[in-house]
Structures are given as C-alpha cells and as structure tokens.
Amino acid sequence: MVELFASTSERLLGNRIIFAFEILALIISVLMITVGMIQNKTSQTGLSALNGGNDELFSNSKERGLDKTLSIWMFSLGIIIFVSTIVIGIITNVLLAEAAAS
C-alpha cells in the first residue's frame, strides 16, 4: 500500500511539472508571436521567395538597434521553447514507463 501511495504522489508531482512546462511553452509561444509581429519586415511580399524577387540577398546590411535586439530575443525564445518541449517529452515518457511497469 505504501508503494502505491509513493508512485501516485510521484505521478502527481510529474504531472504538475509537465503542466508547469506546458504553461511556460504557451507563454513563450505568445511572446514569439508578439516579437515576430513587431519585427521589421525585410521583403516587400511574402511570396518573393517563390518568384525569386529577393533583391536584398547579396546586400551588405547589418541588423542594428531594435532589429538586432528583436532578432536575439526571437532566437533565445526559440531555444527556450525547444528545450522545454524536449523536457516535456522526456518527463512524459518517464511517467508512462513507470505507469506501465507498475
């Protein structure tokens, strides 16, 4: 009976950790959408990649100021959401393996 209680409390703790990481991923994704909408658009249309209309492909332009800051934020948020998704997957697999074993 004690082993059953311990495994139930461990599963509850695991579910709470997964829920916390899911909320973190949700907040990060909303932040990524917001940063993406604020970023400066470099091309005129979204279809310029399909029709070969990228005039700024070989131009020597560096990101400065707000554009560079937003680019760094987007990259950092992308890494955070990637890592949190991997952690969610690992914890879920561990919990499912423990549930199948008991």
Tell me the total number of β-strands.
0
Distance between the termini: 13 Å
Largest sheet: none
Form type: rod-shaped
Secondary structural class: mainly alpha
Order of helices and strands: HHH
Share of β-strand residues: under 5%
Q: Estimate percent helicity.
A: over 70%
Radius of gyration: 22 Å
Number of helices: 3
For the residues shown, what is the average pLDDT?
Answer: 78
Description:
- The protein contains 3 helices and no strands.
- The protein is mainly alpha-helical and 102 residues long.
- The N terminus is likely disordered.
- GO terms for molecular function: protein-transporting ATPase activity.
- Keywords: Cell membrane, Membrane, Protein transport, Translocation, Transmembrane, Transmembrane helix, Transport.
- This is Protein-export membrane protein SecG.
Brief account:
Keywords: Cell membrane, Membrane, Protein transport, Translocation, Transmembrane, Transmembrane helix, Transport. The chain is mostly helical and about 100 residues long. It has helices at about 1-40, 50, 65-100.
